[in-house]
Amino acid sequence: MTALTLQLPSHLKFTDEEFEQIVAVNQELRLELTAEGELVIMSPTGGETGNRNFDLLGQLWLWNSQNNLGKAFDSSTGFKLPNGATRSPDASWVKMERWDILTSQQRKKYLPLCPDFAVELVSETDDVEDTQAKMLEYLANGLQLGWLINPKEKLVIIYRPHQAPQVLQSPTSLSGENVLPGFILNLQPIFA
User: Fold this and answer.
1) What angle do CA 29, 57, 187 make, to 5 degrees?
2) A Gene Ontology MF term for this entry (predicted)?
3) What is the tens place of the pLDDT at every residue in 133-160?
């Protein structure tokens, strides 16, 4: 099953506040908004994917708490991208200097920026092509490093600015490179 995209009339555009209200009254749904104004309803994940995502977030949290170079976020965090889309990566991170320039009010709402780092973990309900398109959208909006992790295929696609995506088959770990200095993601529990 893939995400359900609701096509809306072209004249119907949501303000940030209206989209937040829609999300608030539909808390049982995980919603995103495309740059074209389409509502995307994301399917909940199963137990294996939830556990993999928890492991990924735990490793990112530990590195971030030891280095304090930025702020890390889970899959419930919305980012209002420069192209107008509101997206929620499975895991993400923003450099401290970018976080620090946000106002208190901006920090309470969907963050008005693209994360510096984002991960999409492909679940049984995800369409891989849709997930790849989302990673390219992040990249076009300022992403510095992105990982698309497909546990079923034991495949990783790495996204970097001004480079073709790099495909890795069965890697045991991933480096945060210069974006997340010193961060090494152990893929063994994610691929198990």
Assistant:
1) 115
2) endonuclease activity
3) 999 999 999 999 999 999 999 999 999 9
Low-confidence ranges of the chain (pLDDT < 70): 1-12, 27-28, 43-44
Q: Which two tokens stand for residue 75?
A: 């899959």
Considering only CA atoms, which of 33, 42, 38, 32 is closest in space to residue 3? 42
Cα separation, 86 vs 72, in Å, equals 17
Place of tokens 């920090």: 107
Look-up of token digits 């976020």: 73
**How far lies 62's CA from each of 116, 117, 174, in Å?**
18, 16, 15
Cite the DSSP H helix spans in the chain. 16-25, 47-67, 96-100, 104-108, 128-140, 188-191
- At residue 1, the pLDDT reads 39
Q: Please report how many Cα atoms fall inside a 13 Å half-sphere around the Cα of residue 129, on the Cβ side.
A: 2
